[in-house]
Amino acid sequence: MLYTNLHHVMTAEEHQKLISENENVMICCGRMGPMCIPVYGIMEDLEEEYKHVKFADMEFDNPEAYVIRNVPEVRGFMGIPFTMYYKNGKLVKATSSIQSMSQVRAILDNEFAPVTVS
Q1: Residues 63, 24: Cα–Cα separation, whole Å
Q2: Which of 2, 101, 9, 6 is nearest to 64 (CA)?
Q3: Main-chain dihedrals φ then ψ at residue 26, nearest 5 degrees
Q4: pTM for this entry
Q5: Please, which residues have CB within 8 angstroms of residue 89's CB and are 6 or more apart in sequence?
Q6: Which residues of 6-44 are buried (b: 16+ CB within 10 A; e: fewer)?
Q7: What is the rounded distance in angstroms from the CA atom of residue 102 to the CA atom of residue 116?
Q8: What's CA 92's distance to the chain center, in Å?
Q9: Residue 113 DSSP symbol
Q10: Are β-strands 54-59 and 82-87 bridged in parallel, bridged antiparallel, or unpaired?
Q11: Are the C-beta atoms of residues 7 and 56 closer than 8 Å to each other?
Q12: On the chain, which terminus has fewer CB atoms closer than 10 Å, C or N?
């Protein structure tokens, strides 16, 4: 179990339900280590601001995390966490290793920009 204040995804079934029921999803798949903890903190800080995005974590060592560890987009990744961004159930961006607040914001703003009606 990851000790974060994020929604915890425990099974492949929960993962599928989360990405199919929410338009914008960011899932950080990692451990409680020095490269992962800062990303969880950033996600916790941004939850209130990005209400149109569902933030979650998944434990990297959980056998059910194969749904993240085995996708082609992460094949060359060398470090954790694997951070996945889903739009309408489809993977639109994947990153690995530590990320800064500005890097995460740039991805969220680019991939999940709210549609404004003029």
Answers
A1: 24
A2: 9
A3: -120, 120
A4: 0.95
A5: 19, 20
A6: bbebeebebbeebbeebebbbbbbbeeeeebbebbebbe
A7: 23
A8: 11
A9: P
A10: unpaired
A11: yes
A12: C
Residue found under tokens 């914001």: 105
Dump pLDDT digits (tens) for 56-90: 999 999 999 999 999 999 999 999 999 999 999 99
pLDDT, tens only, 5-48: 999 999 999 999 999 999 999 999 999 999 999 999 999 999 99
pLDDT exceeds 80 at position 95: yes
C-alpha to C-alpha distances, 90 to 6, 66, 68, 70, 81, nearest whole angstrom:
21, 16, 12, 15, 19
- DSSP code of residue 85: E
Query: How many C-beta atoms lie closer than 10 Å to residue 90's C-beta?
Result: 8
Helices and strands counted in the chain (H then E): 4, 5
**Band (110; pLDDT cuts 50, 70, 90):** very high
Question: Which tokens is 30 given?
Answer: 């990692």
